Amino acid sequence: MTGGGLLVAGTTSDAGKSVVTAGICRWLVRQGVKVAPFKAQNMSLNSFVTKEGAEIGRAQAMQAQACRVEPTALMNPVLLKPGGERSSQVVLLGKPVGEMSARGYHGGRQQKLLGTVLDCLAELRGTYDAVICEGAGSPAEINLRRTDIVNMGIARNAGLPVLVVGDIDRGGVFASFFGTVALLSPEDQALIAGFLVNKFRGDVSLLEPGLDMLHGLTGRRTYGVLPFRHGLGIDEEDGLRVSLRGTVRESNVSPPVGEDVLRVAVCAIPLMSNFTDVDALAAEPGVVVRFVDRPEELADADLVVIPGTRGTVRALEWLRERGLADALRRRAAEGLPVLGICGGFQILGEHIEDEVESRRGHVEGLGVLPVRVRFAREKTLTRPVGEALGEPVEGYEIHHGVADVVGGEAFISDDEGHSLDGCRVGQTWGTHWHGSLESDGFRRAFLREVATAAGRRFVPAADTSFAALREEQLDRLGDLIEQHADTDALWRLIESGAPQGLPFIPPGAPA
């Protein structure tokens, strides 16, 4: 028996598809429904490693957490990791299969993946009571419809009803809803069940006449109006603005436990990846996190973080061009804390041999850690565990660079004291492990070291649980759906599909 399903599409990118999908998943699982997330194709530098060693988008990993299930490659069979404006690494079923230009991908490769995508969705629907699918961009991108495998392409082939989410905070939501439907073919329009308004501020009664008119114009109802809430962004796809909307930019920094706050500056390097690594720092009371791109912005920072990147050599050049490389070297020489994560760790080393990512060959690093990096064609994808600063730590690795550590102290070790990863010299630290700061004991120990080195009377809170904060965030998303959407009508969609007899809205897709 095939389980129920729903595709959450959006009028635009960043309309709130990931958040709404996670919210519906958490609402369903609280009703006792066995549910899984799915996104056929994700374009993101923000990724995660599953227990079986597959790389998927972090949004789908978080949605799996909302479902209280372990994430798998089935939930995001195609992941595109941009390496520049015109090319991306294609990750298929969790493993990289090569670089491809946008023209090459949309010109033929994408359509060939449809069978794989449908097989993954069918396997999930055969295992779960419901599968909540997330679209990408807009379903009305008519230039890409022929090869689409993530919006109406998947909806048509799998017979999924479609809920279109619109961000009313941007303005123009009624035109966006109407235009999205009117640009689709009759066959596609038959699956557009209705709309969901996201990020509404104010009195809903003032919106209702517009929703009634929209119903009259399209024959499709609105399934809910979700109010604007700060701090609800989960680990979404791309862009600094997306990641930081939730945990960093819109969160209120809680008062410090000690006398001082701790200021963290994160270098906003090009092709930044897994920038959610710093969310755990921002969750600590009294820690202020900001992203910077000028050397003078490092002056008052107690800790500087160089995050991961899909372009290590390009990021290194960017740091030099902006004067940040010299500022980082000065900090290291003065014993002020610097942390490099993954690509940031590689940047801090002596040199890089890269015939894989940038194909630039030998490139000098910042030279503040005794590490030599060689890029391998095989990508490391693991979920390691170890100890650091006397505390258990776990994380995940996603990198082509192989580090040869030729000095300094071990950063992360096994339970017998043998080095597992990373390097430390003074107050300069480097590790390939993403997510390590989510380990509460390790994070507190690290922040105590940083505070001492920076001369700050900062004290980490003894009871901050990052995992618990994530659960609270997902529960708030579930609450939004339960309290502000017509959940009975949503369940009918998931169980029975789009209503019959939905009207066609001209002009439809161009011939």
Automatic annotation (TrEMBL):
<comment type="pathway">
    <text>Cofactor biosynthesis; adenosylcobalamin biosynthesis.</text>
</comment>
<dbReference type="InterPro" id="IPR047045">
    <property type="entry name" value="CobQ_N"/>
</dbReference>
<feature type="domain" description="CobQ/CobB/MinD/ParA nucleotide binding">
    <location>
        <begin position="7"/>
        <end position="239"/>
    </location>
</feature>
<keyword id="KW-0169">Cobalamin biosynthesis</keyword>
<dbReference type="InterPro" id="IPR011698">
    <property type="entry name" value="GATase_3"/>
</dbReference>
<dbReference type="InterPro" id="IPR033949">
    <property type="entry name" value="CobQ_GATase1"/>
</dbReference>
<feature type="active site" description="Nucleophile">
    <location>
        <position position="342"/>
    </location>
</feature>
<dbReference type="InterPro" id="IPR002586">
    <property type="entry name" value="CobQ/CobB/MinD/ParA_Nub-bd_dom"/>
</dbReference>
<dbReference type="InterPro" id="IPR029062">
    <property type="entry name" value="Class_I_gatase-like"/>
</dbReference>
<comment type="similarity">
    <text>Belongs to the CobB/CobQ family. CobQ subfamily.</text>
</comment>
<feature type="domain" description="CobB/CobQ-like glutamine amidotransferase">
    <location>
        <begin position="263"/>
        <end position="440"/>
    </location>
</feature>
<dbReference type="Pfam" id="PF07685">
    <property type="entry name" value="GATase_3"/>
</dbReference>
<dbReference type="InterPro" id="IPR027417">
    <property type="entry name" value="P-loop_NTPase"/>
</dbReference>
<protein>
    <recommendedName>
        <fullName>Cobyric acid synthase</fullName>
    </recommendedName>
</protein>
<dbReference type="InterPro" id="IPR004459">
    <property type="entry name" value="CobQ_synth"/>
</dbReference>
<feature type="active site">
    <location>
        <position position="434"/>
    </location>
</feature>
<dbReference type="Pfam" id="PF01656">
    <property type="entry name" value="CbiA"/>
</dbReference>
<keyword id="KW-0315">Glutamine amidotransferase</keyword>
<comment type="function">
    <text>Catalyzes amidations at positions B, D, E, and G on adenosylcobyrinic A,C-diamide. NH(2) groups are provided by glutamine, and one molecule of ATP is hydrogenolyzed for each amidation.</text>
</comment>
